[in-house]
Amino acid sequence: MSVARARIHALDTYDIRFPTSREHDGSDAMNPDPDYSAAYVVLRADGLDAAGRPLAGHGFAFTIGRGNEVQVAAIEALRAHVLGRDVDELCADPGSVSRALIGDSQLRWLGPEKGVMQMAIGAVVNAVWDLAGKRAGKPVWQLLADAEPEWLVGQIDFRYIADALTPDEALALLRAGREGAAERAALLREHGYPAYTTSPGWLGYSDEKLTRLAKQAVADGFTQIKLKVGADLSDDVRRFRAARAAVGPDLRIAVDANQRWNVPEAIEWVNALSEFEPYWIEEPTSPDDILGHAAVRRGVAPVKVATGEHVQNRIVFKQLLQAGAIDILQIDSARVAGVNENLAILLLAAKFGVPVCPHAGGVGLCELVQHLSMFDYVALTGTTEDRVIEYVDHLHEHFVDPVRMGAGAYLAPEAPGFSARMHDASIATYRYPDGTFWVEDLRQHEGV
């Protein structure tokens, strides 16, 4: 008698929004009033996980409020590619669902491989990796680090990047990365992965709050902080002076313009801040402007140029690297098409010798991207030199397996999966527009 195979039987989506704009959390020169949000997806499967819970994979795309419903609709459009899929086959080859979603010829027209559909694919693909980690009983960083190099290469789409990275080159990098991996995994579990914090630097914060949080960052063991800049130069000078006074002359301070400037303006503005020794300038101009970033890099040296949180696919990253346009590559766990594409980007960065310092400001982005950097350290580049993961200190309480920090470092996740599962109570409270918080918020505003 044959045993029925476990299959994906439901794809559930949720529009989750948090009112972060009311305290100016996440505010910057381009986005002054973000309500951090998640277009959230749960793949529900037959059977139970290792903890005896109904088996499910969780993922999301990050947005900042209005339009989150559009992102949810994009995820819904992928339903037919996932329902009924065999769980064992899916977990054995997450690349199969990545290829199916990217390869839908009609949905591809809405990209290709960019924008809302790309982020929707990333949410579903990441949910598959969450499911695979749970099935294997491993956190995703360990699942990746333990994987055979040949299998990892098979997870990557080399179309459009083979002129910069061939499968054979990727395989050689991964084989070399396995040397000493067990020792590095032990060091990771003991010491964690270096982090920097943006929490003091949101543009809407007062100078007093900036100073207080910058001093707290030093006390918490961080060796780098980041300030948002780009709205008003005199304000930036004043805030940078306050931050430097708070942290001292040696701690690194990066700055982030969130795409605010034209190229000549970026060069002029960053040079005007040079007396405070900014470590890098992040997103100085449009994320699509490869030659613009190269010009900024030449014009602001020795200040480093960083970008990536809005870079939409591996092809643009390839060109940034080929053009020598960046010093720091910033992957985002939910902007591109999930783990598989981020593997390609990590390998591109490794080949070009450019350090990866991920973006992680937003709902759950810290939880996800830590796994990718930890894999990079343990089983690819073997180093954390000049590498840090961004950390922000809000909204972690909504996750079942939140990030854990110690002495300015991310501690390695231990729970199986991708750390993506939100508490049911948080979903019920912040689901938009019918969650209990938003229903009460509307009632109060109508009563005014």
Automatic annotation (TrEMBL):
Enzyme Commission code: 4.2.1.68
UniProt-listed PROSITE patterns: MR_MLE_2
InterPro entries to which the protein is assigned, alphabetical: Enolase-like_C_sf, Enolase-like_N, Enolase_C-like, L-fuconate_dehydratase, Mandel_Rmase/mucon_lact_enz_CS, Mandelate_racemase_C, Mandelate_racemase_N_dom, RHMD-like
Organism domain of life: Bacteria
Cofactors, names only: Mg(2+)
Keywords, comma-separated and alphabetical: Lyase, Magnesium, Metal-binding
Boundaries of every Mandelate racemase/muconate lactonizing enzyme C-terminal domain copy: 207-303
Molecular function terms, GO-annotated: L-fuconate dehydratase activity; magnesium ion binding
The keyword Cytoplasm is assigned to this record: no
Class of the enzyme per the UniProt entry, highest EC level: lyase
Enzymatic reactions: L-fuconate = 2-dehydro-3-deoxy-L-fuconate + H2O
Alphabetical GO biological process terms: amino acid catabolic process; carbohydrate catabolic process
Pfam family for this entry, one: MR_MLE_N
The protein's name: L-fuconate dehydratase
